[in-house]
Amino acid sequence: EGCDAVVHAGIGTSWKRSERVSTNVQGTKRLIDAAVDAGVRRFVHCSTIALYGDAVTGTITEDTPARPKKGWDYAESKLAAEDIVRHAGARGLEVVILRIAVVYGPFNMTVTVRPLEALADGRLVLVECADVPSNTIYVDNLCGGIQGALEAPSSVSGETFLLSDDDGCTWGDYFGFFADHLGR
User: C-alpha angle with apex 105: 104 to 110, nearest 5 degrees?
Assistant: First the structure.
């Protein structure tokens, strides 16, 4: 009650597939229903570029078809959640979907803290991914993108936007930067 907008960045992190999928899909539906019932104006849904799968070549744009890797419940459930969000637009809710790249920055355990600890200990090995685009976004840039989605005119309702730093880095470049600074 009393909120103008909701930013939904929830994600299922359970080790149980059913709980992950339920959080991503049913959790999104429940939050949409609550937002509509409360008279919220705008709903910003944080999704993922994982929806494009692992067989995409070339540049990914908002027009690139979503084709999640078969059996990857994270990407498949995030696509199902996006469908729920899109349909909420017909219920009078302004909806914006953000397909977010790999987020990095302080305190990110997955692509910052743990890999850099392994790098510092000489245990980080890149297997067949040094030349793969990292498709990353720095956490502050992500926050700016979310702010933009909140402040954009109502004409953006129903739109999907990709959020990624346009740095052209590969995973080799990304971890190479830190390796150079650590003298590894």
Answer: 50
User: Which pLDDT score, from 0 to 100, does residue 173 have?
Assistant: 96
User: Alpha-carbon distance 54 to 45, whole Å?
Assistant: 22
What are the start-end ranges of the E strands in the chain? 5-8, 42-48, 94-100, 102-104, 136-138, 159-163
Sort strands 136-138 and 159-163 into parallel, antiparallel or unpaired: unpaired
Burial (Cβ within 10 Å: 0-12, 13-18, ≥19) of residue 112: middle
Q: What is the pLDDT at residue 151?
A: 97
Round to whole Å and give the CA distance between 112 and 36. Answer: 37
Confidence of residue 20 (pLDDT cuts 50, 70, 90): confident
The structure tokens 């059996």 sit at 71
Give pTM, 2 decimals. Answer: 0.92
Give the Å distances, CA to CA, from 181 to 120, 167, 169, 178.
10, 19, 17, 5
Give me the torsion for CA of 10, 88, 139, 109, rounded to 10°: 20
pLDDT over threshold 90, residue 13? no
What is the spatial distance between Cα 33 and Cα 52, in angstroms, rounded to a whole number? Answer: 27
